[in-house]
Structures are given as C-alpha cells and as structure tokens.
Amino acid sequence: MTKYEHVQDIWLTKKIYEDAENAHYEGLAKAALTPLAGEVAKARQKLIESRDTFTTAVASIDTGAIKFMEKKVVEFEKSMNDVLSHLKSLDDRISSIERHIHQSKSIHEIDIAAAPQQEEEEDDGVDLFASDSEEESEAVAKVREERLAAYAAKKSNKPQLIAKSNVILDIKPWDDETDMTKMEEHVRKIKCDGLLWGAAKLVPLAYGIHKLQISCVVEDEKVSIDWLTEKLQEIEDYIQSVDIAAFNKI
Fold this sequence. Notes:
- The chain has helices spanning about 15-120, 140-155, 180-190, 225-235; strands at about 165-175, 195-205, 210-220, 240-250.
- With about 250 residues, the protein is of the alpha+beta class.
- The chain has 3 domains: about 10-120; about 125-160; about 165-250, Alpha-Beta Plaits (2-Layer Sandwich).
- Strands 2-3-1-4 form a 4-stranded antiparallel β-sheet, covered by helices on one side.
- A hairpin with a 2-residue loop joins strand 2 and strand 3.
- The chain starts with 13 loop residues before the first helix and ends with a strand.
- GO terms for molecular function: guanyl-nucleotide exchange factor activity; translation elongation factor activity.
- This is Elongation factor 1-delta.
C-alpha cells in the first residue's frame, strides 16, 4: 500500500460539480423569474397610467365644479341685487305715501283749527256770553239783545243750498188712437211750487204706439216723485202707466 491509498476516496472534483450545480439552478431560477418580472413591470406601468388618469379626471372634475359654483355665485349675486333694488323701490313708495298722509293730516288739522276762527269772524265780535250778573244795566242788556238779533238775522240771510233732482218720465198711452198732444197738455197742467216741466218728445214703442218722454226738475223738499206719479196716473183718459226713465241729483 502506497502512501496515497488512504485518500483514494477523496472527491477531488467536487467543487467543480457543485459550481456547475449552482449555476444550473441559478439558470433555472432566472428562467422562471423572467416572465414574472415582466408581469410585475407591466402591472407597475398600468398602476402608473391609472394614477395619471385618475389625477387628470379629478383635476377635470374639480375644474368643472369650480366653474359651476362660480356661475351659481354670480347668479345668486344678481338675484340679490334685483331683490335689494325692488325693496328700495318699495321703501321709496312707502316713504312717499307716508309724506302724503302726513301732509294731508297737517292740512286737515289746519282747517279744523281755522274753523273756529272763521266762525268767530262771522260772528262780528258778538259776545254770546256777556255778563249775566244781577247788576247788569238795562242799557247793556238792550245792546246785547240788539247784537243777538243782528247775529240771528245775519245767519238767516245766508243762502241755503236747495237740493234738486232732474227726472225723466216715460208716460205710456192706452193705444195708438190716444191723442198724444192732449196728453202732454194735461201733463203740463200739473203745477206746484218746486216743479218745473222741461222738454218732451214722442218715442216709438210698437205697432204705431208712441210714449211721451218728458223731463222735469223738482225741489226735493217740496215735490215728491211718488206724489207726481200719482197725479199723472189720475189722468186716466190718456195715461195707461208712468215709469221713471232717469233720476239724477243736481
């Protein structure tokens, strides 16, 4: 046995085999990882593209929302300006009405205040409350009575407003054979204080029949329209009915 026999089982090329084995497995690993790395890269690129798209969409949405809000703010501001302008117009009208009412009230108060003064001027200085003491002389009493009499006479001489009415009467005959001229003559024969007959005319009715339309002016305190109608209806030979066509105060 030589001196090298005790190491005959030593694997002198083990290192070479191990390196070859490692290289083999590393190649397998790289071959397996290459498609996965590509997929990862693609996924990463898609994420980047999605993020950019989302950012662009959000920016677009934000810009549209801002423009919409700005438009609404402008419209609201315009509406508020219109409302304020309308309120100012109403305030001016109310102020004008209040000034007018105040002026009318002031004029009315002045008229009321001036009325007693005018009444005193009309009295011509008549003292209706002269002394009633027992020591009053007959001369003073006589003067007072004369003044009272003069005052009463002045009041009685003031012209009074006479209420009058203008009346138009429709007077209908019995038939077409009624003498309308005679009818008018009988109507005008009705006379009294406060009654004044006016113009008259014939108005056709039907079948050749005419009615007499006559106007008159009456003083309301002296002549009653009911009385006048009754007096007219008493002319039975000519008058069938009497109607009031118009009645106006003068």
